Amino acid sequence: MKIFKTLSATLLGLAIAAPAAAEEYNANHFFAERHSMVRGPYVDFAKRVAERTNGEVTFRVFSAGSLLPPASSLQGVRDGVAQVSYHAGTYTPAELPIANLIGNMAFYNTDPMVMAFASTEFGLTNPAALAEWADNGVVFGGGYSTSQYFMMCNTDVETLADVKGKRMRMAGGAWSRFAEFVGAVPVSIPSSEMYTGLDTGSLDCAVAAADALDSFSLKDVVTSMNTLAIGNYYAGFEWGYNAGFWQGLTAEQRRVLFDEMAYELAQHRVAFDADVATAVASAKDAGMTVLDPDAALQQALADFVIADEAALIENATSRGVENPDQVLTAFKAVIDRWEALLKDVDRTDTETLAALARSEIYDRLDADTYGVN
């Protein structure tokens, strides 16, 4: 009996001392785990958040579309299938007309670091953008930017004349309009289908960030890459939170998420560009030719950038955006601000970049009220 009482007391003491089991939340991304947009901003992010919250906020990361397919990620995070998710705005133009408006202004500034920080600040602070997130039941956590998009082809594409008639995988929107502007044929397919398209000949080129040479194994089917910078992609969000989940967090937990998103915003940009450099070098070693655009192709892109703003405004107006020209003006001001802030910053120094993201963006948010009121 004495032994039984002692054992019972010991077990009771352990039960009191042990913390309550933390709930595990779902984090969703449709890229594979090895991609830079998942490795840091989701896998590493989940570990850092769990450590800093003592396990109170623990995310289980679902990658490669294993929880939600690309087109369903906005609805999925709204409905609570995921508590946080990446979403590419191109898939939901009717639901996110403002996000697509600024996301389609991809040629105004093609510096990925600038666009990642600018899209984050705009999404967190612009009243029209904030209203759009709220209408969709999402709390915007932070943005991103891919590295610059290039034409990666299974035939040489160097000049404006070479582009004519080529079937090019485009990300939709402004990219598709650019293809038509230069006489190419835009093909709208997910990034996961680029390899098959190039391999079977249904595509001549895939227009995407050059890390795809490795992350989507395109180096096996690409023979040349043109260095014309055809914008970069940042529409939607890298982190969008379910509103109920976000509002159920404490202010201290939200502040942890702010800090870690600032870190991963910077870390992702450093990692993405490093992945591009590695992928291009590997592809060149395997025989890929790197071609510079001729003057006519460069001029065609410059002419398109000027002409396309009218199309951006017209499309946004047709989707119900009020004063889209003012939205673009506001976004340009944020872009210009970040171009100046990042001018002399070491683009490989994650800690310095993260500190800048905190001081200029996340530290200015009120963890008690952001996404709550």
UniProtKB/TrEMBL annotation:
Pfam families in the record: DctP (PF03480)
This protein's GO CC annotations: periplasmic space
Protein's cellular compartments: Periplasm
GO biological process, one term: transmembrane transport
Principal location class: periplasm
Annotated signal sequence range: 1-22
Coiled coil: none
Keywords, sorted A to Z: Periplasm, Signal, Transport
Transmembrane segments: none
PANTHER family attached to this UniProt entry: C4-DICARBOXYLATE-BINDING PROTEIN DCTB (PTHR33376:SF7), PTHR33376
Top-level lineage group: Bacteria
Protein name: Alpha-keto acid-binding periplasmic protein TakP
Family: Belongs to the bacterial solute-binding protein 7 family.
